[in-house]
Design goal:
The complex is a heterodimer of chains A (445) and B (346). Chain A is of the alpha/beta class and 445 residues long. Chain A is built from 15 helices and 17 strands. Classes of the chains: A alpha/beta (445), B mainly alpha (346). β15 of chain A pairs parallel with β1 of chain B, so a sheet runs across the interface.
Chain lengths: 445, 346
């Protein structure tokens, strides 16, 4: 208790990881050119896939909607570049090797100015119109989960949400895109927060930033007006500080009950990148066509933060930023929770916060064979959900999935990977739990 | 780009720089000063005993390990078991009995259950319990520390041939020119003669006792090194010591004649070695926060009960083995409170 007070706001357990942020943290956001082809999966968000509005061969303008939302839990897709639709077929995407997608050939002669959008004042809209406008913008959580933002922001009145919590932790190693956004797009961020507060009707907004980004804290504080009911809370740099439940605990001292959602403790959480995009898109009436990603890792020649068109294949980024080596592992997101891609054609989507490139040396170092559990208990001390990964690991090997869920709270695991990270026997604990959870979900379905 | 091989693994793609061999290596480092002090106190025979027991432990692990034997040798856990076992044996313990103890420790205590990570009980203590039952006389035969001839001669019992009664130990001890050696440990002296050994001797380890259990200060220092490097759970030795104080303190206040003060209980016998290096064996101790506390307190309490009310003068070994056996039950009762769950469970 006293220690956490001295160190700043935080949660208990979790792990210290090497940040590796110095590689890109001081590099301003630059725009990457357009690739020849963009691959736009119809399900870059959580929920129902979008319904295409275009045919093969059709010409589209940058910013034009090319797929519409299929109901409430869905989002439209906008053309990230002026060009021609060349295919509507299954392509490799971050969610799987063959998912329905629109393939766009970029017009090399075009200036790529935004050809769509109608400026308006979001703060003058009523809540219903505002929520509809947010859905039309195609915005999903840019922190990684890609949950439709309009759904998150439409809080049923009976849930009595009082606080909008903005996640500026960026606790994953290597990633610095949120850091750069807080520094460079402070105005968009503050505008976005005001819009989100209007949409949710909350009285107060809190921005949680890890204490390894003092410049971001200063920039945001400087960008706030006296009368804004928005404050910055500096939280400890610790993984997984940016996990929703951990941040709520650290910044507000509230604990989301097991299996519950933040709204149950009166909170709605959004990522800083999402808020900055909201503040940029809504006043212009534009759709989400690009995002900022961090390209980093030991194997990349020109690391940095880049604004890229959605649908840009990883291959193009590798070529542009320079990949060194014969064997590589390309991770979408950070090293703790990001997933490696199986094909270099895989595109950047709304939820991709970075591309991490590792080569032979790191792959070698990480390919240790799993040994016997020596019951050291490091995983128990690391688990931010206070589960018992040691016991869960034994049960997983015995395939006692029901016991794992019923007696050891398997379903509360959010797969942060702390247990695998600390395990001295290199047991892939979190992978066991992912498999166990998906088997249980299949059985339930 | 086309020539690049793609690697596919699951998250996390980073790992803490601590693995099992590293942990084991540091435990071995922490034991070496105790080994050195033990050889300084008791001489050549003890060095031979430590080497024999450790070599036998390694050989047994290799032999019974089968396919994985080589890998299990490399993790270093067999060396730890060997060293710890040797440190709990009397300094002039016959070498052939040491071999029996080591085979029992690794064979019965560890490999029988499936090797590293599977053993419910501390293997070194299983080995010691085995020879305690098999050779009750030799396991309670002590030699004085700092004997004059300790580096030039070996106690006759050390080299005793198997299954024959060791002879001539009394004469050898007389040759060591040590004042007033009674042939009993501080705990034995207290239990059977009511004599309290001076604190200074207990701290430095210049008393009769098992090879590596006597220097209390050095053991604590070595244990603290491991605790600071986070290679042992500091809560366990703390809880063990708290358990001893909580049990011995009130008794001492009740009747200071019959029951010694907690200081004596903490520093005598194998308590420090047990608390810092045996009770903390990761495999046999609980992983849950409250479990660790209960486990440690239980060891402290049982030790005091066995020492003061049992037939034996020392109780650390059985206390730890009993607590090891209770670990699954303790863990079951002390599952951590899941984040966000109500404070009061079910």
């Amino acid at each position: 208790m006293i220690l956490s007070f001295l160190r700043g706001h935080t949660f208990s357990h979790g792990v210290r990881v090497a940040h590796h942020k110095e590689q890109t943290a001081s590099r301003p956001i630059r725009r990457l050119p357009f690739p020849e082809r963009l691959i736009l999966p119809l399900d870059p968000h959580i929920g129902k896939p979008a319904v295409p509005l275009v045919r093969r061969g059709q010409e589209v303008v940058r910013g034009e909607p090319i797929a519409r939302a299929d109901g409430w839990m869905s989002l439209p897709i906008h053309a990230p570049a002026t060009g021609r639709v060349v295919a509507l077929e299954p392509m490799p995407t971050p969610r799987g090797p063959r998912r329905p997608a629109i393939v766009l050939e970029v017009d090399p002669a075009d200036t790529q100015e935004m050809g769509w959008g109608e400026p308006r004042d979001p703060l003058a809209m009523d809540r219903e119109t505002l929520i509809a406008a947010i859905q039309e913008s195609g915005l999903a959580g840019l922190g990684g989960a890609a949950f439709p933002t309009h759904v998150k922001l439409s809080v049923p009145p009976e849930q009595r949400v009082d606080t909008l919590l903005i996640n500026g932790c960026e606790c994953e190693p290597y990633l610095t895109c949120d850091h750069r956004i807080m520094l460079e797009q402070t105005d968009d961020l503050v505008t976005g927060i005001r819009i989100a507060m209007r949409a949710t009707g909350v009285q107060e907004a809190v921005i949680g930033v890890e204490n390894n980004k003092p410049d971001a804290v200063a920039a945001i504080r400087a960008g706030l007006r006296e009368e804004d009911p928005i404050r910055v809370v500096v939280v400890e740099s610790k993984y997984p500080q940016g996990a929703e439940k951990m941040l709520i605990k650290a910044a507000l001292g509230r604990e989301v009950p097991p299996g519950g959602i933040p709204a149950q403790v009166g909170v709605v959480v959004n990522n800083v990148g999402t808020m900055a995009a909201l503040g940029h898109l809504l006043p212009r009436g534009e759709g989400l066509v690009e995002r900022v990603i961090t390209v980093a890792g030991p194997a990349v020649r020109r690391p940095g933060n880049y604004r890229v068109a959605l649908g840009t294949p990883i291959e193009f980024i590798l070529r542009h930023c320079g990949f060194e080596g014969k064997m590589g592992e390309f991770i979408l997101g950070g090293p703790m929770m990001g997933s490696a891609v199986s094909a270099v054609e895989t595109p950047i989507t709304k939820g991709t916060s970075g591309v991490l490139m590792l080569h032979e040396r790191e792959i070698e170092a990480e390919s240790r064979p799993a040994e016997h559990c020596i019951r050291c208990g490091r995983c128990v001390e690391a688990c931010p959900m206070h589960l018992n990964p040691c016991e869960l690991g034994w049960l997983a090997r015995k395939r006692e999935y029901d016991t794992m869920a019923e007696r050891f709270h398997l379903m509360d695991c959010f797969e942060c990977g702390c247990c695998s990270f600390v395990c001295p026997a290199s047991i892939p604990l979190v992978q066991y739990f992912r498999i166990a959870k998906s088997i249980l979900r299949e059985q339930a379905a | 780009m086309s020539g690049t091989r793609i690697e596919l693994r699951t998250a996390p793609h980073a790992h803490a720089p601590v693995d099992v061999p590293l942990i084991m290596r540091h435990v071995i480092y922490a034991l070496l000063p105790i080994v050195a002090w033990s050889v300084w106190l008791f001489g050549l025979g003890t060095l031979l005993l430590i080497l024999t027991v450790t070599a036998t432990a390694l050989a047994t692990e290799r032999l019974l390990g089968g396919e994985g034997g080589e890998r299990s040798i490399r993790d270093g856990s067999a060396v730890i078991t060997g060293l710890l076992l040797a440190l709990t044996l009397p300094p002039a313990f016959p070498l052939w009995m040491g071999v029996v103890a080591a085979v029992a420790a690794i064979g019965l205590g560890k490999m029988l259950f499936g090797g590293l990570g599977m053993n419910p009980l501390n293997p070194a203590l299983v080995g010691r319990a085995f020879v305690q039952a098999a050779f009750p006389a030799s396991i309670t035969t002590w030699i004085p520390p700092l004997g004059a001839e300790r580096f030039t001669s070996v106690a006759p019992s050390t080299l005793a041939p198997p299954f024959l009664r060791p002879e001539g130990l009394a004469e050898w001890i007389a040759d060591q020119r040590v004042d007033a050696f009674t042939g009993a440990t501080p705990l034995g002296l207290f239990k059977f003669d009511g004599v309290i050994t001076p604190l200074r001797d207990l701290l430095a380890g210049t008393t009769a006792g098992s090879a590596g259990e006597t220097p209390a200060l050095l053991i604590v220092a070595c244990g603290l090194y491991l605790a600071f490097r986070r290679f042992l759970d500091w809560r366990i030795p703390l809880a063990v010591m708290a358990g001893v104080v909580l049990a011995a303190g009130p008794l001492h206040l009740l009747d200071a004649e019959r029951f010694p003060d907690p200081w004596f209980m903490l520093l005598s016998g194998g308590l420090m070695l047990g608390a810092w290096f045996m009770a903390t064996d990761m495999v046999g101790s609980p992983v849950t926060p409250w479990g660790v506390l209960i486990y440690g307190l239980l060891i402290g309490l049982l030790t005091v009960v066995i020492r003061l009310f049992g037939g034996l003068s020392e109780g650390v070994m059985y206390a730890i083995l009993l607590a090891n056996a209770a670990t699954p039950l303790i863990e079951r009762l002390t599952q951590p409170r899941v984040f966000g769950a109500a404070r009061r469970k079910e």
